[in-house]
Amino acid sequence: MKASTLLLLAGLATLGTSCGQDAASKKMADETEARVVASIKQVLVQAPAQAGALDPVHTWYQSSEVPNIIKLDPGAEAVYKAHASILQEVATNEAKLVSDPILTPAQGQGIRSGYQKLVDESTGNVAQLTNLASNKTTMSEAEQRTFVGELAKKENHQLELVRYFTRRTASTIDLKTRQQKSDEYNIKMWGHK
User: Fold this and answer.
1) Residue 40: burial class (beta carbons within 10 Å; 0-12, 13-18, 19+)
2) What is the number of other CB atoms lying within 10 angstroms of the CB of residue 103?
3) pLDDT for 97-119, tens place per residue?
4) Alpha carbon distances (Å) from 10 to 31, 33, 78, 149
5) Are 81 and 154 in contact (CB under 8 A)?
6) Domain ranges of the chain
7) Could you write out the three-class secondary structure of the chain?
């Protein structure tokens, strides 16, 4: 579903809530909420190793305490998709990069620490969304939407940082490997580097 359509449905659901929902608007809001929840669950299924770690974070999402403005906001879904992508990126690349024989154990630990810091920052973004939805906020609906939108941008930026870290680390390892091969060749050919 396109973000603009979801936003329109979220707006209609919110309007219906504030105007004493009739049965049709409540049904539409419930169906839209179910689609968003299903979409988030689908993202979690794509990262099964980390899905267990995300279960506590998502239990609030289905509770009646979470305002529909948060549930139906496409930005909330974007935060979870980006977080799941970050976890998938780390799961896919960390072990491969850390186990490269060109690295010292300290360098491998540095890569692990870098990934852990990036994942922790992403988890912090998800926690902010959880806190917004869990606490009784004094923000207006417009302020909540703006906050969620900014959080989605921040989480997307975090995903780009993780991808950049992966590319940079892989490039550095490749450069070290080529340098080592060049040194070995020069020693074999000329007797020195």
Assistant:
1) buried
2) 19
3) 999 999 999 999 999 999 999 99
4) 11, 9, 15, 14
5) no
6) 3-190
7) CCHHHHHHHHHHHHHHHHCCCCHHHHHHHHHHHHHHHHHHHHHHHHCHHHHHHHHHHHHHHHCCCCCHHHHCCHHHHHHHHHHHHHHHHHHHHHHHHHCCCCCCHHHHHHHHHHHHHHHHHHHHHHHHHHHHHHCCCCCCHHHHHHHHHHHHHHHHHHHHHHHHHHHHHHHHHHHHHHHHHHHHHHHHHHCCC
Residue 93 one-letter amino acid: N
Q: What is the pLDDT confidence band of residue 18, given thresholds at 50, 70 and 90?
A: very low
- The dihedrals phi and psi of 137, each to the nearest 5 degrees, come to -95, 155
Residue type at position 57: V
Over the stretch 140-156, which tens digit does the pLDDT of each residue have? 878 888 988 999 999 99
Lookup: tokens for 78: 């974007």
pLDDT above 70 covers what percent of the chain? Answer: 61
Return d(Cα 121, Cα 131) in angstroms, integer.
Answer: 15
Cβ atoms of 104 and 46 closer than 8 Å = no
Q: What's the token pair of residue 1?
A: 């579903």
